[in-house]
């Protein structure tokens, strides 16, 4: 099963977690980021999931990495991420820093790889040739991601520099994997740009991934790719590979008539 964008600061979303149970004691669940804005929220959610699911796998989202004003946990950037990894490990949750677990159930064996890659402003509109132009467009349209103010890249000079460092390290690790095994790639942001094409505000796509991962689903033998962030839960196919967006989203979104509130989404057997 896969789920993301729980945003448990909303009481309605917190109730979703309280009522979330597996169909079988053997079920796994992958959590593709944006549990909340607080390490306490992450611990609250993952503690419950580890008591219910056989295996829990986590990849961070941008909200998980925010440092809010007057934050009781003022860690920033890499230090904040490492603190979240410590919380996960204390609960037995698999993170991007741990050996990738292997799903041996129906459809397996599959290497389940949680990734932490960020974005580098390359998902720009055609009219923006540079990051600076893309940001100018976003500010003019009034569509600016809060990451610009709350997601700090320390000790990296920029978020895109942190992204490129994460991409390089992760690419090397995936390339060293068993070439006989297929994978399930789990990342908060979509690995390809195509899912962002339906965004109401195309200026927002620059905060949604990187062109550097455009072929990873093929290169790294993905049987499925799991992501969130866009708050548009659906199934799409790219080069014959199934992509599952598993977002819950904000209450005002999932309460909309016709919204496909079928989360968590089944990943395997697909």
Instruction: Tell me the strand order in the biggest sheet.
Output: 4-5-6-7-9-8
Task: Give the structural class.
Answer: alpha/beta
Enumerate the spans where pLDDT stays under 50 for 5 or more consecutive residues.
none
Largest sheet: 6 strands, mixed
Report the helical percentage.
25-40%
Query: Going by CATH, what is the homologous superfamily?
Result: Metallo-dependent phosphatases
Distance between the termini: 10 Å
Number of helices: 8
The CATH topology is given as: Purple Acid Phosphatase, chain A, domain 2
Oligomeric description of these chains: single chain
Domain unit count:
1
Give helix and strand order, one letter per element, not per position. Answer: EHEHEHEEHHHEHEEEH
The residue-averaged pLDDT reads: 95
* Number of beta-strand segments: 9
Any idea of the CATH class?
Alpha Beta
């Amino acid at each position: 099963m896969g789920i993301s964008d729980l945003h448990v600061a909303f009481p309605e979303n917190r109730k979703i977690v309280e009522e979330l149970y597996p169909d079988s004691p053997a079920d796994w669940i992958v959590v593709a980021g944006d549990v909340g804005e607080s390490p306490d929220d992450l611990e609250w959610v993952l503690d419950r999931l580890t008591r219910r699911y056989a295996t829990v796998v986590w990849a961070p989202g941008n909200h998980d990495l925010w440092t809010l004003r007057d934050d009781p946990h003022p860690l920033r950037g890499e230090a904040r991420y490492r603190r979240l990894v410590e919380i996960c490990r204390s609960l037995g949750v698999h993170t991007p820093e741990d050996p990738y677990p292997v799903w041996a159930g129906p459809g397996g064996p599959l290497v389940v790889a949680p990734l932490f890659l960020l974005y580098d402003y390359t998902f720009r509109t055609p009219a923006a040739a540079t990051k600076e132009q893309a940001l100018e467009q976003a500010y003019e349209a009034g569509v600016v991601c809060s990451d610009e103010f709350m997601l700090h890249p320390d000790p990296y000079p920029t978020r895109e520099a942190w992204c490129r460092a994460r991409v390089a390290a992760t690419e090397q690790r995936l390339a060293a994997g068993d070439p006989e095994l297929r994978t399930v790639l789990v990342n908060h942001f979509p690995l390809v740009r195509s899912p962002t094409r339906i965004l109401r505000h195309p200026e927002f796509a620059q905060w949604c991934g990187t062109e550097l991962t455009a072929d990873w689903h093929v290169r790294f033998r993905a049987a499925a790719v799991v992501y969130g962030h866009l708050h548009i839960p659906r199934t799409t196919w790219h080069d014959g590979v199934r992509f599952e967006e598993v977002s819950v989203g904000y209450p005002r979104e999932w309460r909309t008539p016709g919204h496909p509130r079928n989360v968590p989404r089944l990943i395997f057997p697909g």
